[in-house]
Design goal:
Blueprint lengths: L1 H7 L5 E3 L8 H9 L4 E4 L5 H14 L4 E6 L5 H10 L4 E5 L7 H6 L3 E6 L2 H10 L3 E5 L5 E2 L7 H11 L4 E4 L5 H9 L4 E4 L1 H4 L8 H9 L5 E4 L6 E4 L2 H11 L4 H8 L3 H7 L23 H19 L5
């Protein structure tokens, strides 16, 4: 725990995931102000939109915050330069080779964290010089690893395999899960879905309400032959399911996915034809409170859990 709080200069080892169409400056600053680490999700932003969110976040909080950057982003050079120009000192990278930008970022005194779905990539990240890793089980929402390794299995294996700090993600939505992740060897946690359904999340109200209505079997990992993604089952998913049942080509699946499908679902609130990315933990989400209330609730739940187990809380 101290590894993470010291690395990011935060109070609690709790990171809010940089989710596309959910994680703007309002959510990131709210979490940072509570003593966690808020992340702006650059994956859904044009370069100048990201600059605007960074500038607004700096005005909304004097505490550390970071930016999550999918490395497959088409304007990656512009994104990275804006991050440097605006003085952001923490970058989480994903969906790409960690060797591509780690050295460039570290040369500019930026802390680098990379998201991985398995032990092999965790070791690779350590070799490439990243400061910490997020090991994400396939319970997580959005784009996912093809190996379908659960968090309970993945966390201890990654913790045993590397010496750098390990942040657990995937299926963590309350204080009990935080306690479990730390018990399995993680130094901190990254939480997405629970923060996606908060007042500060930039997701559409329709999407948030769909998450609240979800039960334990409402999500599924699909499009494994193209780009694995966990989402809520809806009419769009049924199209994908039908195509996959007849062994559709990657080209046909890509055509069904099309462009801006996640924006249509998450940001614009189209619950029929949109891609509704969310994690399995959505079955535990029953309300849409402020990020501050969620944070306080998780801390209370965590402390109660470790008290019952006889552990020392942070």
């Amino acid at each position: 725990m101290k590894k993470i709080t010291s690395l990011f200069n935060i109070t609690y080892p709790i990171i809010q995931a940089g989710m596309v169409w959910c994680s703007g400056w309002k959510l990131a600053s709210a979490v940072s102000n509570k003593g966690g680490l808020g992340l702006i999700g650059a994956g859904s932003m044009y370069p100048e939109v990201l600059r605007e969110h960074i500038q607004k976040c700096k005005k909304a909080t004097h505490k550390p915050f970071g930016v999550n950057v999918p490395l497959l982003y088409p304007d990656i050079d512009k994104i990275m330069n804006i991050i440097h120009e605006e003085g952001v000192k923490i970058v989480f990278t994903s969906a790409g080779n960690p060797a591509t930008w780690t050295s460039w970022l570290k040369e500019r005194d930026i802390t680098v964290v990379h998201v991985v779905p398995n032990v092999k990539l965790a070791k690779k990240c350590e070799e490439r010089g990243v400061d910490a890793i997020v090991c994400e089980g396939f319970e997580a929402g959005g784009h996912n690893g093809k190996d379908e390794i659960t968090s309970m299995v993945l966390i201890p294996q990654v913790a045993d395999a590397v010496k750098i700090p390990v942040i657990a993600a995937g299926g963590i939505g309350d204080g009990r899960a935080i306690a479990a992740a730390l018990a399995l060897g993680a130094d901190g946690v990254q939480i997405g879905s629970r923060f996606a359904a908060t007042l500060e999340s930039s997701a559409h109200q329709n999407f948030k309400e769909a998450v609240v209505k979800a039960d334990d079997s409402a999500t599924i990992l699909t499009m494994k032959n193209l780009v694995p993604v966990r989402l809520l089952k809806n009419e769009f998913y049924e199209q994908v399911k039908e195509a996959e049942s007849r062994c559709a080509s990657r080209e046909e699946l890509a055509e069904i996915l099309g462009k801006r499908r996640a924006k249509k679902g998450i940001f614009e609130g189209d619950l029929i034809d949109g891609e509704l990315e969310i994690g399995q933990v959505s079955g535990l989400i029953t309300d849409i409170p402020s990020a501050s209330e969620v944070f306080d609730r998780m801390l209370e739940e965590y402390r109660e859990a470790v008290k019952q187990l006889g552990f020392n809380a942070f």
